[in-house]
Amino acid sequence: GPPMCGIVGVLCADDSSAVGPLYEALLALQHRGQDAAGIITEDAGRFCLHKDNGMVRDVFGPAQLTNLRGSIGIGHVRYPTAGSSSCAEAQPFYVNSPYGITLAHNGNLVDLPTLKRDLEREFRHLNTGSDSEVLLNLLAIELFSNLSSPSHEGTRSVSPSSGAGAAPAPDCVDAAGRKLESLSAFDGKGPTDAQVILAVNELLRRCSGGYACVSMIIGYGLLAFRDPHGIRPLSYGRRLAEGSTEHEYMVASESGALNALGFELLGDVPPGHLLLLRRGKEPRMHNCFASAAAPLAHAPCVFEYVYFARPDSVIDGISVYRTRLRMGEKLAHLINRTWAAHDIDVVIPVPDTARTAALECAHALDIPYREGFMKNRYVGRTFIMPAQGLRKKSVRQKLSPIASEFAGRNVLLVDDSIVRGTTSSQIINMAREAGAKRVYMASAAPPVRYPNVYGIDMPTSAELLASRYSDEQMDEMAREIGADRIFYQELDDLRASILEEAVAQGSSIRGLDCSCFDGKYVTEHVGAAYLQSLAQERKANRGDSDTNACHLLYKLDPAPAGAERAR
Predict the structure, then answer these.
(1) What tens digit of pLDDT does each residue of 154-178 get?
(2) Residues with active-site annotation
């Protein structure tokens, strides 16, 4: 499956350039992926695209930015996962028919094999293993099927005024029963709202998983949509164009990117909804599941709050920062409850994400909080490094201890989560080398025991530290990573951290996707067989993580010898 990503779409005033805001937004979303970046704009009916492997600042120099002309565009940042390090996998993707469509997405489709078979039947060729390419081609097929109704052939060859001979066009009715523009109003420009709505309705019906997408169609504008469970985030906002009364619009994975560029947050694209942004028209939000008997459960990914999102983002009406404060407070209550006579001298965060929780945890424990690790900002995030060997070396490059804060003390290290345990054990080791007397480890998230299938590169169950131990075996787990004691947030407390904040802020969220912690997947198609095939695919792909020639959709041959090295 594809990794965690960041997406953005911008519709600027007519005469201004979209590339500036797109570039800045990708910088603001860089934490969501450092492996590859891409921007595509539209200028007078032509797409201008540049994408490559690397950080945003490395991919786009002045020459590339100058060539990305036009006042509308979309952008994408991605981090590497299994076997996806070729720049062919970088987004956005483009398809030329119908109209010219481009798409970028964040998330993961769980019914990929079925969808790929469907596309083969439609004579569609897929060149990469990316879900985005599948989504893009499905969107194209659905738009095409709206075009190829019999009435259409008549309309195309006659001028609008002499349409007497054309068969009457079918009417399209939206959920409220209003007639939308006729389906066959083809004028050589782009699709109508009605055609786009029909196509996305069908796309959302066919695609199971967690995904947020932004797409641009020549002669039409921007569209953004979100999976029916709202697992992956998508915010939108507006600002006044410079020296004008006209608004510019932006849609992005996180509201933090909107704030950074002075866009006023209008809200989130609700689950199963489609946002239409067209020049000279008010934004239009369409509920693609309005006619469904019962809406599907809205279940945002809990990991956005725990780890991924910027603390200044507000996701589905809930402040990420405030949820992290609550996580820290509840962690302190857990420590007091389970170990009242503790001997902790100091609380030290593992930078950066865990700072917020660690600060509040120390406050609630009434113990000093200290910074104990300096971070080198110019090295990528480790959880995101594809192969274990790289990951080991990287922690040392990234963090160096401040010895004075460890010497002779019993230290509680607080991290946002413990995934494989490799990073944790190195950090614990560094704390001991710096002179700590005892080292306790606390995770603001519960034990990660199940793979994430909705677009976060969580490894297979076998690679997850906590999957090898039950809740009764915490002492053994602590021993494996070299800690004197280990504490994990309880799942009910994590849920409460987010849902209590939702209530406090008037958000309607009442459920969350916590599948990495409880193994309950909100979408269909995720059973034991799917998880097993996912594990095999990820293993096979990791087998040659050193190669960069991963244009193959899947490694068809078994994993190369040596791929089973201890991970």
Answers:
(1) 333 323 333 333 333 444 445 444 4
(2) 5
